[in-house]
């Protein structure tokens, strides 16, 4: 189902490189194996804040401080000074905003031996395999149904195209079948009716 192990832990984002499946995340204990897979919501870039915002802010600061230096510095030197100041502050502000964005944990859905792991802005949820129903993708809403219940769990903006939705749905059903089969002891399988 998956050719390589998870690069990072879906639960705590600890780097899992070099740890062969099956294994547990050394940081949080998230159990994964060769069938585990994770999907993440796309990173939302705030273009205006990251690029234009710092330049405008620094430009306004530079224009405000400009008259202070006009009398003591020639006009071309003043313009060069303000331009360099704007570039320096814009770089610092942009770097800071990217650093903050990199600390934000993305919404995620993961297949793991324990069940489906779902992380969104409002929290984390595990759905054990015996309770996993099917994935429903309807317009802007995506959710997992629970077997034998009206209960659902939202899937937070992770699947942006129909191909990813189809792959996820298929992998969930295959994983559910696999993990439920290995959960039943081999000697009790023969005695269960088909």
Question: What can you tell me about this protein's structure?
Answer:
41% of the residues lie in helices and 21% in strands. It is built from four helices and nine strands. The two termini are 26 Å apart.
Distance between the termini: 26 Å
The number of helical elements comes to 4
Helix-strand topology string: EEEHHEEEEEEHH
List low-confidence stretches. none
Largest β-sheet summary: 4 strands, antiparallel
Q: What strand order characterises the main sheet?
A: 3-4-5-6
What integer is the average pLDDT?
76
**What Rg is obtained from the alpha carbons, in whole angstroms?**
25 Å
Structural class estimated from helices and strands: alpha+beta
- The general outline is elongated
How many strands?
Answer: 9
> Share of helix among residues?
40-55%
Residues in β-strands, percent? 15-25%
């Amino acid at each position: 189902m998956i050719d390589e192990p998870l690069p990072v832990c879906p639960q705590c984002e600890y780097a899992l490189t070099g740890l062969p499946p099956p294994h547990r995340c050394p940081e949080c204990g998230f159990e994964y194996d060769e069938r585990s897979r994770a999907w993440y919501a796309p990173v939302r870039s705030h273009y205006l804040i990251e690029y234009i915002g710092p330049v405008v802010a620094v430009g306004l600061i530079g224009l405000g401080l400009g008259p202070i230096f006009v009398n003591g510095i020639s006009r071309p030197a003043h313009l060069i000074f303000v331009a360099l100041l704007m570039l320096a502050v814009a770089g610092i502000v942009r770097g800071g905003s990217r650093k903050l964005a990199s600390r934000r944990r993305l919404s995620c859905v993961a297949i793991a031996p324990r069940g489906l792991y779902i992380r969104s802005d409002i929290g984390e949820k595990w759905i054990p395999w015996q309770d996993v129903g099917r994935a429903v993708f309807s317009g802007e809403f995506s959710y997992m149904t629970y077997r034998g219940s009206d209960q659902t769990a939202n899937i937070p903006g992770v699947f942006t195209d129909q191909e990813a939705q189809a792959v996820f749905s298929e992998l969930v059903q295959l994983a559910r079948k696999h993990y439920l089969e290995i959960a039943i002891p081999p000697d009790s399988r023969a005695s269960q009716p088909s």
